[in-house]
Amino acid sequence: MIILNALHSMLEATSLIHLTAGNVFLIIIGMVMIYLAIVKKYEPFLLLPIGFACIVANIPGNQLMKPNGLFSIFYLGVSKVIYPPLIFLGVGAMTDFGPMIANPGIMILGAFAHVGIFIALIGAKILHFTLAEAGAIGIIGGADGPMAIYVTQTLAPHLMAQISVAAYSYMALMPLIQPPIMKWLTTHDERNIMMKQVRVVTKREKICFSILITTIIDLLLPPIAPLVTMLMFGNLLKESGVVDRLAKTAGGAFMDVITILLALSIGSTMSANTFLTVKTLEIIVLGLVAFMTGTAGGIWGGKILCRLSHGRINPLIGSAGIASVPIAARVSHSVALQENKYNFLVMHAMGPNLAGVFGTAIAGGILITLIPH
Amino acid sequence: MISDSVSGAVIISIVDMILLLFFLYVIGLILKLLPLVNKFHLKSHGREKHDNT
């Protein structure tokens, strides 16, 4: 009897007795994410830490998840909206805006590919989410993780776990989601269009671009000023050519640190008691609809520009307007390569891809401004 | 004040899309004018790099 009591006390001291079926399910989901990251190489920088933190978050009584635990402290960077502008700083320091500056005509594709935001927004409202919640869900269609966190924290912070997980998971799965839609909506001839080399953009143009865009967006759309300002500051570090060390750090080690903290924070929100709800399922479905319709919208925009340019623009670059730099541009490139192994579309697709970053930021800023919260 | 309804969501979507097109058009316009900065000749210690290759 004493031995049984001792064993019972031991069992109570472990986390095993508190483990629910929901926890087990999400631990398996976490393992699938790690499998996709390691074996399938689907955005391992995101899926690996998110999957790992998801497993940890579903082990009851874990010290990391307690109010003053390490993951809870990491999460302050999400709830206080610190990580998104810092991620944008790193993105800016790594990005060459030349392809977008060289081809202003394709800026419009950044709008076409965002039709998914509005379809998800209306869909969420039909499913009886509040307007603020619907706005936050809609922004998943922008395929921009930091922006999704930024808008959600303002409009519907209680949905942060579901929206951030949906946004980052779909971003990682874009190489699976986009190609069938792209192939379905385009003809063989359209996919084969080879685009001409864009003009050379000078360093001076790129420096002026950073300063002008910061000034204009900060003046006209203050709600998204922190993101665009940091994006352009990071780009100014890179393009100025006088602070190479800072640019390399912002786009390298610093970006890696923030990515680790952000991805662990997101994964740590996937605990069974908050995550396994009907609302989560609805948000995940709406997110998928947003990604699919956004891709289709971008392709249709590309087809319109193809007609207007008398066949000089490959419609496949349209789907890259869905932001998510540079994943979407790489997907456009790989679909074009499947048709013609000499058709290198990546630099052309980077134009709408970068326009998509601004598109998501602007659409999100307008949602924050218009929707009462 | 936009109502918390499906029609409110539709109105917000339409307004957002129009403003998004407007802002991207404005940015596109700035990008078209950007090459003008190359016409100003500034004194420099070194030759300017053309690095979008």
Describe the structure.
The complex is a heterodimer of chains A (373) and B (53). By secondary structure, chain A is mainly α. Chain A has a domain at 91-190 and 198-243 and 272-370. Chain A is built from 21 helices and no strands. Chain A has helices spanning 2-13, 21-38, 44-57, 70-79, 83-94, 98-102, 109-112, 115-126, 131-138, 145-155, 160-172, 174-185, 188-191, 203-220, 225-240, 244-251, 253-267, 272-275, 278-308, 327-339, 346-370. Chain A is globular and about 85 Å long. The model of chain A has no long low-confidence stretch (mean pLDDT 92). Chain B has one helix at 6-33. Chain B has a domain at 6-34. Chain B is built from one helix and no strands. Chain B starts with 5 loop residues before the first helix and ends in a 20-residue tail after the last helix. Helices cover 53% and strands 0% of the residues of chain B. Chain B is mainly alpha-helical. At the A-B interface, helix 6, helix 8, helix 9, helix 14 and helix 21 of A face helix 1 of B.
How would you summarize the topology of this molecule?
The complex is a heterodimer of chains A (373) and B (53).
Chain A: H1 2-13, H2 21-38, H3 44-57, H4 70-79, H5 83-94, H6 98-102, H7 109-112, H8 115-126, H9 131-138, H10 145-155, H11 160-172, H12 174-185, H13 188-191, H14 203-220, H15 225-240, H16 244-251, H17 253-267, H18 272-275, H19 278-308, H20 327-339, H21 346-370
Chain B: H1 6-33
